[in-house]
Write a structure and sequence with these properties.
There is one protein chain. The chain is built from 2 helices and 20 strands. It is of the alpha/beta class. It has an 8-stranded mixed beta sheet with strand order 2-5-8-11-14-17-19-20, with no helix packed on it. β19 and β20 form a beta hairpin. It is globular. It starts with a helix and ends with a strand.
């Protein structure tokens, strides 16, 4: 009986999944996302690209709780500004990721990001309150983000501008990364601090 119920549920959700897949493919095409192999996408992905956005093969984007029960509260989104470059390597997985690229973000191979991770290479607003009042774009600071191979970033973490994370390093859940993390280290906290070597 349970088997029959599962089959019925699959049939009932099939039209929605087909429509979602068509929407994602149109999004990737219309936003000129380059990829070695079309990524595996569960749920919707939102992309705004006026720069250069390229992803490798074996990439997984999870935008629904059904695809990852960690507690995803937002769909995957990629924003790449004019003259900016976002590069994602091969065999990486993202659940409810938010990437905002105003200048340069590079993500290596075999990177795993837990639910609701955010990677931002900009402050979004000027630090000076008078400049914020008039939203002076020239005063907004940004810096390239580089994430190495085999990095694991725990759920609900935020990677901020100008940060480099070395190969095989781990960022603990809920961390705010404001400084470079060397290769093969565990960092955690707000702001993230060195915990130990792997």
């Amino acid at each position: 009986m349970r088997y029959i119920v599962k089959k019925i549920l699959i049939l009932l959700t099939l039209p929605g999944r087909i429509i979602c897949d068509i929407g994602n493919r149109l999004t990737m095409y219309s936003q000129d996302v380059k990829y070695l192999k079309y990524p595996e996408i569960s749920g919707r992905i939102f992309v705004f690209n006026t720069g250069q956005c390229s992803i490798g093969q074996g990439i997984k984007f999870r935008s629904t709780t059904k695809s990852n029960f960690v507690g995803i509260y937002k769909p995957c989104s990629l924003f790449v500004a004019r003259n900016a470059t976002l590069r994602i390597g091969n065999n990486s997985g993202f659940s409810g990721i938010s990437i905002f690229c105003s200048s340069s973000i590079s993500i290596g191979d075999y990177v795993n990001c837990g639910g609701n991770v955010s990677i931002w290479d900009t402050d979004f607003h000027p630090l000076d309150y008078e400049k914020r009042r008039i939203h002076d774009l020239a005063e907004i600071r940004s810096g390239p983000v580089k994430i190495g191979n085999d990095v694991f970033i725990g759920a609900n973490s935020i990677i901020l501008k100008g940060v480099t994370i070395g190969n095989k390093s781990i960022v603990g859940a809920g961390s705010v990364v404001t400084k470079n993390i060397p290769e093969g280290e565990i960092w955690s906290g707000n702001p993230a601090k060195y915990i130990r070597s792997i």
